[in-house]
Amino acid sequence: MALFKKMLEILSSLVSYLVVMIGMVPFFCFLMKVLNRTEIQNKHIIQRARPPFIFCSNHVSMLDDTFVDPVVFAPRAYWDFRFIAYHTPEKKNFFKGPFFSFIMYASRCVPITRGKGVFQPGMERLIRVLKSGKIVHIYPEGTRTRSGKLGKAKIGVGRLVRETGAPVIPCYHQGLDKVLPIGHKIPKIGKKVKIYIGNIINFSEYIDMPNAPKTWQMIADKIMEAIGELRAQVESQADTTEN
User: How far is it, in rounded angstroms, from Cα 193 to Cα 191?
Assistant: First the structure.
């Protein structure tokens, strides 16, 4: 039985590799680096990191992870299957029909149902994914912003950290709302995108605290604070350039 599960895991990784690294990554790297102008700061933090970890970013378009992940996790993802990150798309929007559901599962998407809370099956699977040494990309805000402002973090990411002990790498990106504005389905070209990656955050001081919503919120708030600091850096550099 153990051998069968191991073979199944290897097969699943191979399918994910073919779908993501051969099918998706070259296309989206071309979209972001050639058809659009993407600047990445501190990419080495991702490339040198040791899984498991949670990659946390702000959320402005329906395809943020599809735009960001290919350019920050490659090239290491080409030889390290762990760097094909797991994602958390909303089940109703993305798991439509057998074909699209297959693509979602093959590209390591874990369906999350908005409004079902932090104990739904998708959250339990993410905990297992992190405990097995993988990477999860999640949005602490839980949903897209329509104003451009950072929202309040939800407790879900805090529960993932508290129950797995996984460190967090924060990220702030700017410009993806121009590549795929709300209401549009085809990405635009010729836009400028900035992706800022922050230092790894460890939450060892929270592990002995009660495994409860109050602790989860404290962790989530700290993550959102780090993303806010990255945003301030982006804006500060923009002001310096303009002056």
Answer: 6
What is the Cα–Cα distance from 160 to 136, expressed in whole angstroms? 10
Say whether the peptide bond before residue 75 is cis (omega within 30 degrees of 0).
yes
Indicate the burial class of 14 (C-beta count within 10 angstroms; 0-12, 13-18, 19 or more).
Answer: exposed
Q: Do the beta carbons of residue 200 and residue 169 sit within 8 Å?
A: yes
pLDDT at 149: 83
Digit-coded pLDDT (tens) for 91-111: 888 898 888 899 999 999 999
CB of 110 closer than 8 Å to CB of 87? yes
Tell me, what CATH number does 97's domain have? 3.40.1130.10
Q: What is the DSSP letter of 89?
A: -
DSSP for 161-210? HHHH---EEEEEEESHHHHS-TT--S--SS-EEEEEEPPPB--GGGTTS-
In this structure, are residues 191 and 175 in contact, taking their beta carbons and an 8 Å threshold?
A: yes
Work out how many domains the chain is built from and give that number: 1
Task: Provide the domain limits for residue 8.
Answer: 2-242
Task: Supply the DSSP string of 135-173, one letter for each residue.
Answer: EEEE-TTSS--SSSS--PPPHHHHHHHHHH---EEEEEE
Let me know if 162 is exposed, middle or buried by CB neighbors in 10 A (0-12, 13-18, 19+).
buried
Q: pTM (2 decimals)?
A: 0.93
- Sequence-distant (≥ 6) Cβ neighbours of residue 109 within 8 angstroms: 86, 87, 88, 89, 94, 95
- Would you state the pLDDT for residue 243? 54
Q: What is the dihedral of CA 132, 137, 143, 146, to 10 degrees?
A: 180
